[in-house]
Structures
1.
Amino acid sequence: MAVIAQKCPDIKVTVVDINPQRIAAWNDDDLNNLPIYEPGLKEVVAEARGRNLFFSTDIDAAIDAAEMIFISVNTPTKTYGVGKGMAADLKYVELCARQIARVAKTSKIVVEKSTLPVRTAQSIRTILTAEGNGVNFQVLSNPEFLAEGTAVADLHKPDRVLIGGDQDVEGQKAVQALVDIYARWVDRDSIITTNVWSSELSKLAANAILAQRVSSINALSALCEKSGADVDEIAHAIGRDSRIGSKFLKASVGFGGSCFQKDILNLVYIARNYGLTEVADYWEQVIIMNDYQKRRFAANIVKSLFNTVSGKKIALLGWAFKKDTNDTRESAAIYVADYLLNEQAEIWVYDPKVEAEQIYADLDYLNSRSEEENRRLVKVVQTPYEAMHEAHAVAVLTEWDEFKTYDWQKAYENMKKPAFVFDGRNVLNSAELKELGFIYEGIGK
Ligand code: UDX
C-alpha cells in the first residue's frame, strides 16, 4: 500500500488496523520504529506519509470513503477443527467482508490481497451480497508476489502483477481500474489479467513450485553428503541449463517464512477435498522433505559432537527465516533449536535483527517445554562473540552477510576444542575456517 501511495500521489491510501499499537508504530515520527523491518521501506513511508498515505484505526470511516478496498489480513493455517494444521483460517477475511458489507453505502471494488484458497472470492462475494445494503461489489484477486527482505524492490519492479476478475462487463471494468493503478509504474506487458480462480491458484502454485525447487536441491544435498558430490557445484551445473535457471537452488537447512509451508498445506488440503489423493501426496512431499532437512541438520550436530550435546553450549547465528528481515515465521532455526533443546543443549542465539522476546515466543509456541525452561536454556545475546564464547559448536541458520566478515580467528580461540561450525547456509569460507582449525560441515558437502 505504501508503494501504491508513493507511485500515485493523487490517490489517497488509508491503511487501517484494529490494533492501535501497530497503527501508532506506523505513525511514529522515528521511522526506525515502523513495525516491519524491510530495506527501503522507511524511505517510501517518509515520502508518502501525511501526503496521501495515512494510517488509522477508524476502519468504518475508511471503508465509507474508499472506492477500492484491499483485504490484506492474515490467513494463518487453521489450528483447530476441520482442516486443522492444513487449511487456511479465513476468519479474518470473513470478518473484513462482513464489516465492509455493513458499512458500505456506495459501490466498491474489493480486492483480495491476502493469499487465499481457490474460490474464496466467491465466499467474499456471497457475504458482501447477503449482508450488504444493496450496493454493488466487484471482487478482484490480486495476489502479492513480493519476497521479504526485497519487498520494496520487488514492488517497484515486479516480474509481473496478476489481477483476476469476473469475465462480465462490470468485472472487466473493475479489473481495468486496478490495472490503471499499477500501470503508473509497471509495464502494461507485465500486468497479467485472468479469471478470479486462476489468479487465486497462481499464488499457491508459484510458492509451491519455488518451495519444491528448494526441497529438490535439499534432497540432493543429502545424497551429496553420502556420495562425495558437492551440492553447490551441482546447483551451478544444472542452473546453467536455461530451462532450469539458477534461482532457488541454494541448499539450506530448510525453507521457512510465512508463505511456503502454509500455501503448500493449503494446496494439499484443497486437492484432498477434491478427492485428488495423488496430487495432495505429491505436494505434501515438499513439506516432508523440508521437515527432514531441518531434522537432519540438527541430528548431524548431535552426532558430530560425539552423540551428545547435553550441557554443551551451542551458538546459533541467525534466527530469521532468511537474511534482511526480522520475520521468524516457520524459520528453520526454531526447529533446530527445539531439537537441540530436547537433547539438553544450552543454546545461545545471536541475530542482528530479531528481538529476544520473539525468539522466546517462537519456542513457547511449540509447547515442547515450559516457558521458564526455554528462558533458562536459551540465552539471546547482543554480539556474535558472546554467543560463541566457550561454545562447543556454532550453527549458521540464516545467511546474514555480516557472518562472513566476523573475526573467525578470535571466535576460534575462545571456543571449546574441537571447535565445530555447522554452516546451514553454506555462506562461510570453509577453506579459511578449516585452516584456522575449525571442523567445518556445510550442507551437501
Ligand atoms: C515467498 C515468495 O518468494 C514470494 O513470491 C511470496 O510472495 C511469499 O513467499 P518469502 O517467504 O519472503 O517469499 O521468501 P523467499 O525468498 O521465497 O524464501 C523462502 C525460504 O526459502 C527462506 O527460508 C529462504 O532462505 C529459503 N530458500 C530460498 C532456500 O533455502 N534456498 C533458496 O535457493 C531460496
2.
Amino acid sequence: MNLGVLVSGRGSNLQAIIDAIEQGKLKCRLSVVLADREGIQAIQRCQRHRIPYKVLNRRDFESRQEFEERMVRALQEAGVELVVLAGFMRVLSPLFLKAFPERVINIHPSLTPAFQGLNAQRQAVHYGVRISGCTVHFVTEELDDGPVIAQACLPVLPEDTEETLSERLLTYEHRILPQVISWISQGRVKTEGRKVLVEGAQYGTLPFNPNLEDF
Ligand code: GRF
C-alpha cells in the first residue's frame, strides 16, 4: 500500500512509520511526504531516509481550495492509497476528504472525544484527568472527531506536566500508528457508521484496545 504522510513539525510519528517500514514490520511504501512549511525536522528525516517530499505552503496559494487541490494532486500523482496525518496542523475540508474517502487517518494525543484540538496534553493536565491516552481515527470535517480505530490509555501522574505526559504518550503513539496502518493495509479495518472494527484483532485488553500485534 502506498502511503502519503502530511506533517507540520517534528515528525517523530513519521519516523516511527519510516522505522517500521525499514525494519520490514510495515509492508507499505512511503510514496510522498507533504510538509506545509519549510525548515521542519520532518523534512530532515525525509532527506536522511531518501523519502520523496514536497513543501506546499498555504501562503503560496490564493485560497484554501487551491492549496488543498494541489495537495490532492501531489498525493494522487504519487499513487497514494492512504493519507496519514502525523502532526499536521490543519483541518482538511470536504474537497480534500472526498478525494480519499475513508482513506485519511490522524493520530491525536488524547482519548477522543476528550481534549480535541491544540495542546491536548496540556488540556488533560489542566483538567486533572487521571487517565489519558492517544487515538488513531478516521478524519472527518470535524476536528479530531472521526470514527475511532484504536486507542491506548495511560495514567496521568500527580507530578505530570504537559511535557512529561507528552513524552510518555509519544512512545504509545509510535506503536499504535504503524499498527493501524498495517491493519488497514491488510484490509482488516471495517467501518459501520461510527463503529470501526479490526477483523481478527483482540479486544478487551489495556493499555491498547484493540491489542497491538506487531508493534
Ligand atoms: C503528536 O503528539 C500527535 O499526536 C499530534 O501532534 C504531535 C506530532 O508529533 N497530532 P510529531 O510531529 O509526530 O513528532
3.
Amino acid sequence: MQQRILIVEDEQGLRLTLSDRLRSEGYEVDTASDGAEGYERASKLLFDLIVLDLMLPEKSGLDVCRDLRRMGVTTPVLMLTALSQTHDKVVGLKIGADDYLTKPFEMVELLARIEALLRRQDTPSRPPSSAYQFGAVRVDVRSTQAYRDEKEVTLSAKEFTLLRYLLEHRGETLSREKLLHEVWGYDNMPSTRTVDVHVAWLRQKLEEDPKKPRWILTVHGIGYKFAEQKEPADPIMGV
Ligand code: CA
C-alpha cells in the first residue's frame, strides 16, 4: 500500500520540489502551506509521516506538533529547521517531533530520514515508545521526566534529549560526531568534549556506579552506545 506523507511548508518552491520528488519515489503526497492548514489536515486525515517546517505562518511547526501530540496523533514528524533555530530543534524533539533536518538539505538525506522513520514505525519490536525502563530508571518521554527508584531525577533539556536519543538507538554504536549532530544539531563544534560531559552527567544521575556504567557504555575510540536490554539472568545458572 502506498504510504501517505503530508508536507507542511510555506515556501512554495520547496513544497513543490518535495512533493514532486516524494511522488516520484512512490509516496502519496498531500500538502499544506501554513501551520493552521497543516494542523487541520494532520488531525483529520491519516498519514504515515508528516514533514513539518518549523517557521510557518498562522501556526508554528512547534505548535502544530505539540497540539497533534496532545490530541494523541502519533504520526512520525520530521521537522525542517533553519540553521539558526538550533534551540527550537531540541524543543521540537521534546514536544514530540521524531527527527529533524536542517535547511538546506540534500534530497537524498531527506529521503533516508523519511525511510528510517517509516521503517521504525513498521517495526513492531521498536515502536515509537513513550516510556523506557532500564534497571531502576524509568523514562517518560511524553512528560520528559526520568525517575530513579520512582524518585524524580532532574535532567536538563539537553541531557534528556541525549538520553532519549541513546534509548531510541539502543544497541547501536553512536559516534560523538553523530551525537553532536543529532542531539545538538552542530556539524562543526570545536570539540566533541560536550558529548562526553553530558554523558558523564547522565551516568552520574542514572547509573548505579557511574565509574562502571551498566547502561550508557563507552565504545573506545568511537563514542557511546546504550546497552541492549538483557533478559534477567537465570538464578539457577552459576550456582
Ligand atoms: Ca518556513
4.
Amino acid sequence: MLKISRLRAGLPHRMILDGIDLAIAPGEVHVVMGPNGSGKSTLAHVMMGKSDYLVHEGSISLDGNELISLPTWQRAQAGLFLAMQDPIEVPGVTTAAAIAAALLSRGVAASDLPVLLEEERIKVGLGKEFLDRSLNVDLSGGERKRNETVQLAVIKPKYAILDEIDSGLDVDALSLISRRIEHATQEWNLGVLAITHYKRLLNELKVDGVHVMVKGRIVESGGPELAAALDRSGYSEYLD
Ligand code: ADP
Ligand code: MG
C-alpha cells in the first residue's frame, strides 16, 4: 500500500500542500485532477523527495515503511517511480544506460535487458535509436513520454506517479501508453497515481478513484464519472 496521510508540505516560505490524504493499493489506479497551480506536481515531487520542498507534517509510507526521511534514490529502491511532467535532459547518459543503472542499484540482474528494452520500446512506438541517445536530449514532448513509459515498464516499480504522462501525446501514442500502463497493473500489480487534465487517459486505463485537488487540498473524490464531469465543466464550482 502507498499511503499519504495528513501531508502538509511546500517551500520554506510557502505551504503548497495543505493536508493530503490518499491511499493506493497494489494494482489500483488513482487519478488526481485539478486546476493549474493547485499543487499536483508538487505532490509528485514531494513523494519522490525533491529537496526544494519541505515536509511540515504528515507521512508518506510504502508497504508500511516511512519514506519522508529517505533520499530520492532510496525511495526509488523501495519501489517508487516518477514519470516527470517535464522529464529532464541528461547529456552523456543514454536511456539504455540509465535503465541498466536503475536495475543494478535495485539488485536486479537483467541479462535480458536488450531484449526487454526492444520489446517495450516497440509497445509504445519509440524508435530504436532513442535507446542509445542521451536521455531526453532534444526529444519531442511525445518522445519523452514514450521514453518514460519504457523506463517504467522495464524497471517495474511497485508504484508509479505519472505527472501528465498524456500531455503532448497524439491519440495513437496515448492509446499505446495508457494500454501499456493498464497492462502493468495486471502484469505485476503496479499501483498508479496519475495526474492528468483529461478523461481520455482513462479510456484504456481502468480507474479506481478520481480526486480533485484545489489549492493543495483534495476537495472531492469519486469514480470515473467525476473525471467525465470535470472534463465537461471544469473546476469553477470548486474555486470560490
Ligand atoms: P500543478 O502541477 O498543480 O499545476 P505545481 O505543483 O507545479 O502545480 O505548483 C503549485 C504552486 O506552487 C504554483 O503556484 C507554483 O508556482 C508553486 N511552486 C511549486 N514549486 C515551486 C518552486 N520550486 N519554487 C517556486 N514556486 C513553486
Ligand atoms: Mg503540474
